[in-house]
Structure formats: structure tokens, C-alpha cells
Amino acid sequence: MPDLSFTRDEVEARAGRKPWTRQREFHEEIDPDDMAETAAAYARAASQARDAADLAERATRVSEQSGARDGSALVDAEGRIDATDRALQSGGDDIDGVVRHLVRAMNQAIDTDEKVTGLIHDPGKLEDDYARHLRAAVVEWNGMQRALQARVAERAAEWDAWQRAQPQGGSAPVHTPLLVQYGGRTATALPTTGAQGTSYAFPDSEAADVRNTHLGNAASDASAAYGEIDDEIEVYRHRLAQEGAELRRLGYDLTAGPLGLWTTEDMAKFDAQQFGEESRKEEPDPELLSLYTQGLGAIGDGVYGDAQPPGDPERQLTADERAYLERFYGSLDSETLGRLGRLPDLGRVSEAAKADVANGISMLTNPDAGGIDPSGEGMRNVPESIRNFLESPFTVDGRGVPTSESRFIEEQRDLNGFGGLMATADVAPGDAFAKELATSAVEAEKVASRAEARFQGVSEQNSGSSGMLSAAALNTEVSADLLRDDTFRGDLLSQRWYNSAGAADLIDSGTTVPDGVDPQGVEAMRYVEAAYDVLGYAKDHPDQINAPQDPMGISQTNHSPLQRAVGDTTLRYLDLLSNDGDQTRLWTGGTTAEEPAINGTQYQNAFTFSAKDRQALFGMMNETEGDVRQSFFDQVALWESARARAEFGSGTPDVDTFYNIGTIEGTVAYVQGQADTSGTEAAGMGFKAAKIGFGAASTLAAGPPGALGFFGLSEGADLMVDQMDDSAEEAERWAARNREVWGDVNGRVAIADAARAADAGVPGPPRPDATNPSHTGFDRSDLRRYANSYTGRLGIGEEMGMYEDGFDNANRAPGPS
Predict the structure, then answer these.
(1) Angle at 278 between CA 273 and CA 279, to 5 degrees
(2) In whole angstroms, what is the distance from residue 213 CA to residue 187 CA?
(3) Of 24, 43, 242, 459, which one is least surrounded by beta carbons within 10 A?
(4) Phi, psi of 708 (to 5 degrees)
(5) Residue 624 and residue 706 in contact, taking contact as beta carbons nearer than 8 Å
(6) Along the chain (817 residues), what's the average pLDDT of each consecutive run of 10 residues?
């Protein structure tokens, strides 16, 4: 008899669905045999835990103690955890609330495991169906054999009757194939003649057909059983997700504690599928988006802690957490990630869901956090849904030019969504992934520019690159290193950006020495060098930084954020730029004693610009857009006042510092005097007037000059500038009163204001104030008299003389640098 049997694996392969495998995997995922011990661990921890987070930590420690978990007393007659047991109600209301949800989740898991197991092993279920189909195959084959025997006997009788009917006795029998019918099947039996005579048998193909028929029947039942199993598990996962949401609300970390139901691989696949389905709806439910990303959020909380914004990882991903992330993103496609980034603002909940997805990408691709190393060949291990945006977001020809406008628009829309998604991240990407994000963003901008040229403008502008750069900028070290790279820096700053906010973020990140890093230390070198390189590029390529609008109207640009970032970098390093050296040079990591002091400080990591290069940089800023230009020169004036006040407040002013203040003010006067004033004269005068009138003295008098950082104007300056909201209006009033060039009066007044703020006990004349309606009819001479009178009373003639020398030397065309 042929082998008509088939295995469960063969049934699953034929069905294309795996009910037995699914049941086994779910049982292993749930591990119901360990549930009682897990409950016991929580029971012991609950009596001592301070809060939900402490409960998880204590339960984990208890669960790791060999022989410490006997949970049999917590299990009822049906094998479920008894939530009413007093051992599980001993931690106070908050703790008990967490325990109730944990027990409910465990019991849901146990119940679902029993139901799923029953769909396989209960009487009349899949195991019985499988055995029935095996028996049916044998029964049918045996029936066919009996039918064949009957058919052979029938053929022999027919032959005998035929021979007897012949006049001369007939001839030897002729053996031909026989058609045999049984149970609706028609089979062909073939004759074989040997020493024992002729016999009939079915060919092997008939046995294979019988087996195949019953294998198919078994597969149909298996497919139906899988559907029922899938339904039960889906209901369980929905309920588990809801329990998880309640636990997170109560402050419980879903990745902590011995109960790991929320971060299994199968839960990741479910979360991803449900998340994708919800995001495809015309009006996605933000609460559901949050529900299906809470696993990502919980992993992020566990790895990075509660710091806002997150810093370095507090621990690495566990193997289960990494597997969850890989399965989650492996279950999504690029279109889903792009669609998520394009979702309209649905409120705080949806934005948090986006951030969870973006942070999950950064965690998964960060080897320092226990994730994938995407460098080199490692990029192949990054899920395709993410990798597509980095390796090949556009369909292009051999020259890198898009081949189809409609396809480019569709691909650009997806990339914009991905960039918008990544812009919500607050977890810094790993070094390799940050570099991939940044370089891919710049390459995407190049392709977008080629598309605009080829198709004479496109309806979908590139905003995605900006979001990718913003995400990369969260890694400050990589940002600095990229800006120090000549090729990348040139590529970044030479683009005509539709949205330059991401480029600005990268510059801010890479040129700012982070908090906690010694500005004189080795770790600060990269940031100072990056600032030197960025400012050097900016002063050499003002047209690229300022990017005038395309007169043909094909491309749209917004370089205000980029201009502001270059201006902020200039302000951060204004102390260094105020040094009136004759060379543009950088020094890092040297011996401080070998370098001259700048404003009283000897720098180990620093740079200077020649007069020509400093004027080029300030001239570039003088050509930026109106609000950027106004803010920049307002803050330059703030630096002058803050620097002067710091010197007066020290008790022993450094006269060289006043020369440097004059150098900055003279540079401002020179570039504004050299600028083309056709149509901008009032604005140019407005900058000077605003510096006189914004009231820096009163701002600085409230306390110590906190606006100064180690190299120049710190981030704290923004808070002070916020108090100058009326500076533009004030500037207009000044410009209307007097169109003459004010010369060095601005700096003189700033120094007088600073001196007055540092030593308010010294009487002096009232200060003319453009904001005071009673102060009318005064001009430059009045302001000069105010400054000279006040500074003369303080005996700071030497300082003022140094200021004048610095101003005069800077306010003229420089020699060759």
C-alpha cells in the first residue's frame, strides 16, 4: 500500500496558513505555565513598592531569585490568577490599580491561550479533523482497490462470454487499461503481464491524486481553524493594548518587570499592522495611533529614562526589545511611514505617536543603544521601510535625473512625509545613521533641484530633507564632523533650499559646544572648528547663504532659517571675531600660553578672522532678509553692551577689550556704510538707531550679564532680545528723525549704558530715549555729550580711547588679508 499520509507541516504549507505553528508560538509567547510565578513576584513586590516604576523593578528582582516564586496559592480552580487574593492587594490604591491591570492582562493571556489551544485539541477541532482526513485517504484507497478487483472480475467474465460466442472458440484475451469508478473518482488501472499471468494496478499518480485530495481537504480545515485562532488572538491583543495604555497612564513601564507581554515580536507585528490600517483611514483616530505605538514609547522610556529631551541611552535594548523594533518596522512599508509624516495635526496625542515611531527608528539604528549598526554592509539589516528613504528614494536615470514627473511627485511626497516624521524625533540617532540621514537629505535636495530644472518646476517641493537634517542634528558630534567635511559642507550650503530649517538645525547643533563640555577641552575642538569652517564658507559665498529668489519662478527658496543660523554662530563666537588679528586662522588643542588673550581669556580652541574676512562676514549678514538682519545687529549691540558691562563689573577693565568692542562696531559701521542704500537707507539707519534706543542698560542692570557665553553671546541672549519687541518701530522713529550716519556714537552710548549699569551710584546726565515722547529735538551731538559726560565721570577715558581706535581701524577698507 502506498504512503498516503501527510504531515501537519505539509497541511500548513498547502493551506498557506499555519494554525498548529500559530498555536505553539502563541503558547510560547504567553508562557502560561510561568504566569502564577509572575503573579507571585508582583504580589511580593507590591507590599514594598513606592510607586509603579518601583513595583516593576522589585518584581523583576524577585522573579530573578531562584526558588522565590511559588504562585500556586494565587491560582484559582480554573488556572486563572485570582485578583482578589489579599497578597495582590497590599500596596496601596495606586499600586493595587497597577496590579489589577497586570492581573487582568495575565488572565486575558491565559484565557486566550486556552481558547486557541482548544481550537486545535478540543474534540471535533483541528486535530480530529486532521486524523479524519488521514483515515479518509486510506479508506478511499482501499475502496478503489476493491472497485478495481470487481472491475477485473467483470472484465474476465465479459471476455469469457465473448469467447464462447465465437464459432471457432475465439483467441487469447486482450488486456487493455481499465477505468475504475469509486466515490465520484474515475481512475485508470494498467495491466502488467508476468510469469503469474496478467494483473492490474493503479499507477503511482493515482495514489498521489488520492493523497493530494485529502491533503487539500485537511488544508481547508486548517485554514478555517487559523482564521478562528487569528480572531481570538486579535481580540486578545486589542485588550492587551488597552491594558497597556492604562498601565502607562498609571506610570508603569511596560518594558520593565517580569511580564513582557507588550513587547513580544508577534505583538510588534500586530501593532504595526493595526497602526498601518488606522493611518490609511481618511480620518485616523489619534487615540488608536497612540495605542498601537505605545510599545515603541515604552521601549524608549526604558532605554532613555524620563529625561526631556533624552540624552545618552541609560541602558541598551534587550534582545526582546530589539526584536520588537525589527518586527514592527519590518511589518510596515515605506508608504506607511511617509503617510504618517503627512498626517494633519490631530493634536498632542498624534504628535506623540509620530515621535514614538521616529524615536523607534533612531533606537533601532543605534548600535550604542543595542540596535543595528547601519554602517557599510550593515545598512542591509535596516528594515526596508526605512532603508528605501536613504538608499533610493527617487527613480532616476544614470545622471541622477528623475525619469517621470508624476512618479517623482509621488516619491517626493513620501520623502516629505518621512522627513516630517523624523523631524518629530527627540532621541539622537546613532553616528552612522545620523550621517546617512544628513547625506541622504542633501542628495535628495540635489535630485529635487534637477527635477525642477527638467520639468520646469514641480508641484511638490522638497521639505523632507529638512526634517531628516533636523533629526540628524540631534547628534551634535556627527553634526560638527559633517560641517568640518569640505565636501558635505559645500553641498549643504550651496543648495537652494525650499525649507532651510533642517540645515539651520545642523549648523546650530554642530557649532555649539554642548552643555557639560569644557570649551577649552579636546571634546570642544570639533565644534569650534565647525564654526570656523561654516563662517569661512559663509563669508566666501554670500549669494549661496542668502539665495535670492529665482527670477523665473521655477524654484522656491526660504533661507531665513539658514541665515539666522549663520548669524547665531557669528554671535556665539563674537569674542573671537572681535580680535583684530591680521590673519584668518584656527587653533585647537594647543597650549593656551602660546596664543594671545582675547578679551581677557586665553583660548585653547579658537579662531580669528582678518579685518577683510570679518567685514565680508558682516557684509553677508547685512544682506540677509529684514527680520534676520534686524535681529542680528540688535544682538551685536547687545554683545557690545554686555561685554562692556562685564569689564566694568570686574573692577579691573581690560582696555584691549574696548578696542575689540570698537572693532565690532567699526565693522558694522563699515559694512552698512558700504551697502547699496537704494531703497534700504531707512532700514540701514534703523539698525543703528535700534542699537541706541532698545535700552540695553536697563535690561542688563537687573542682574549679572548672563548674555555672555565662553566665546561670545550665549543662548541666553534670546531671552533678552525678547524684551526688544519694539526695536523695529523704534528704529523707524529714529530713521525718520535723522538720516545722517551716526559714526561711533552707537558704541559710545552702549559703553556709557554699560558703565552706568555696572555702577549706578555714579550720577550722570539723563539719557536721551527715543521711546520717551518728551525726549525730542536731540541729535548725535546730544548723545555724544551724554556718553562723554557719563564716561568722564567714571574716569574711563583710556577705555573710550581704545574703543575709538578699534572703531577707526575697522571702519575702513582693509588691506590684503
Answers:
(1) 100
(2) 14
(3) 459
(4) -90, 130
(5) no
(6) 94 97 94 80 74 75 54 44 42 69 90 96 97 96 91 83 72 78 89 80 91 96 98 95 91 84 94 94 90 94 78 91 97 95 76 93 97 94 96 86 91 96 96 97 94 86 96 98 98 95 98 93 95 98 86 78 97 94 83 72 91 96 92 91 82 86 93 63 39 35 52 55 42 37 59 66 59 58 71 71 90 76
